[in-house]
Amino acid sequence: MLRNYLKIAFRNLLKHKINTLINLLGLTVAFTICLLLVISVYYEFSYNKYHVNGKDIYRTYFAQQTPEGEQFQPTMPEPMLKALKDQFSAVKYGSRYIRRGGEIEYNGKHYMKQVTYVDADFFSMFTFPLIKGNAAKVLDNKNNIVLNEEVATAIFGNEDPIGKIVRMQSTGTWRAYTVTGVGKKAPDNSSFAYQTATRFENEDNYPNTVNEWESTNHDLFIQLVPGTDPRKFEAGLHTFINKQYESNINDLKRDGAQPNARGQYVELLLQPFLGMHTDTSMRGVGTVISRTYLNMLLAVACFVMLIACFNFINLSVGRSFTRSREVGLRKTLGAMPRQVAMQFWGEAALICLIALVISVPLFYFLLPHYKLIFDSSLTIDVLFRPATIACIFACFLLITLAAGGYPAWIMTRMDAVKILKGKLRLKTSGALRNGLIISQFAIAILLISCTLVTWQQLNYLRNRPLGYNSNQIVSIPVGTEVSGRDALRLLKQKLAQEPSVLSVTGLSTNLGVGLDGGSYSWGTGFDYKEKAVNMAWLNVGFDFVKTMDLTLLSGRDFSETFSTDSNSIVINEQMVRQLGEKDPIGVKLVYDTAQAPMTVIGVVKDFNFQSLHTKVEPLGLVMHRPMPINVLLVKVRPDRLPAMMGKLRSAWAEISPRSEFQGSFLDENIDRQYAREERFTRIFVYAAIVAIVLSCLGLFALAILAIMQRTKEIGIRKALGASAGSIVQLITRDFVKLIFIAMVIATPLAYYSMNKWLEGFAFSIDIKWWWLLCAGLVALLVALFTIGYQSLKAAFTNPVKSLRSE
Asked: Keywords for this entry (predicted)?
């Protein structure tokens, strides 16, 4: 029986080649895209799941109620970990975490590596398996160090590293460490890993902040005792936080802040470690990807699959008109309804199976291109995991049941007697077909609309004036081999006689995202005239205002002729507004009672020192503060930019010979801030193209069926004098109506969804109504072009030939 079903199914598929090809093409494309997108989403959600204790690990963060609203701060003060472990028995393990660039020396050879500063519990909390060493003991001494296997091999080769002494420095101070452990390389789906790990107390700034509750500079992870309710644990922290931050809370009350629903002004909350990779509510550890982005990938996958399934259903139901006599004859000869259903569902399952088999090698072939286009770290082995295979099999069954089940059900309901007497007439433009066509084109128009809006927003982000000149600037990350101030002084000396260089300065944090991936931020809060103020910091070098072409509104820039400028500050307009001073020049700001007050010497016009996702914050430009110079900025004549890159590379090789030169153009760094938006745009572009092509493939086949079923009507109309134009209008009119309905449905959906997306930007475009109209017109024109050829062909067919057809 099964053999006969398969034989008949293959014959029918070969007989109706156009339908088979369209269905097979649509399903293959849909399966391939769904495999790429859905497995990508699965991979992103799998981050950190390999940690055995992951469900009990949390990152702590502050939630503070300010007069401007709730603010989150993920960085912690140094004493927090000890206080939590001492006062709360629910805390089983805890580790502070901070990462710095570093340099290791062994037997006269130097290696530039990342240094991760953690606590002794780190390897007991997280599942970073050790090849050599005991997880509970590898960091029990301050002078111990753990290397991952790649670093250990690079330094020691085949030599056993355990017990060996290496020297390491992160900011210039060399120290000796004993290698006590070698760890396996962490999986790619990990929020963070380590190259070298040592005790947190070895971090250079630790002695200055060890007892400071107001200074926050690291992330803190805690592991709760299994079974602990994290919400109850957070509630239990209220008394501790209220006591520890009583002064801060009083300041918030004084300034008009309102408590949250739990009556708290400052809370210490827990961010689940397993959800950290997809939580963009605050700065993350390691890579962070938006849940909105992942949900968008799933939505696109579903849209493409729905369009392919709609095509399949429409063509199958439409083709049933030509197979009605086959069904009638089968029933007359004794076929049961379930046998008829099995035959037609089997054909659907066969097409789906062939499409799936083709899509797997296509997935393998397209994966490298997909990773490049969408900046994905997806690997081929994800496809062969048991969970992935089970999910693919379940989706395959669901799709074959949905796409093939309804047409098979239609066939079983046919009356065999009426079919054979020729009295059965199937409706060829019923509500289902129209509904599916409307749905297809509504999805296509929605995706085209989203493409236009994201494209316009991305262009806006790239072209909006930032308040400084980014077109002539080369950005060079300093690294750890030489201090930032020394590197700045040496680079200035080497470029002093270079006519193409206009100025050189330094900065504590890169503007945008440099080639080193570095993006740092510093901030502080203090009282001014009995009012709490908050300010972002940028530690700069001389000539920063000149190099960046900032607009100086009053006062002056830093100058080497003023020895007091180490205690001076230049502020922006937002900071002036926050201070409430009409003329802030000469104002003294005390941010730390242990430090000399800072004197305001200048005011610059607001500029976007952060991405356009955020508003311009109050800012202070300072010199010789605790933050280091991490980036050097070189302003070059516009016509000499490419040529100067080679000279800068050579100069850097003399200044820091063991460090890689990672210079880049500042405008490119700015663009890298919007990689997520660029990925959004690419997704919409490719999805819109696929959606419109698949929709039009189905429309093309339906137009052929509609013309076949109206062959005699068209012939009679032509014989009675109908023009070619009226025939084309007759065929296309119904389809055009459906597309207009799709426009009416899709346009408000696109407007609402894209407005919600744009709310994530402090600076954004206004959606123009004619953009959405254009999206609908694009879909309409493509659809008319698709059915136009078949309509014209039918209109110019000899009516005699049409009337002779059966």
From this structure: Cell membrane, Membrane, Transmembrane, Transmembrane helix
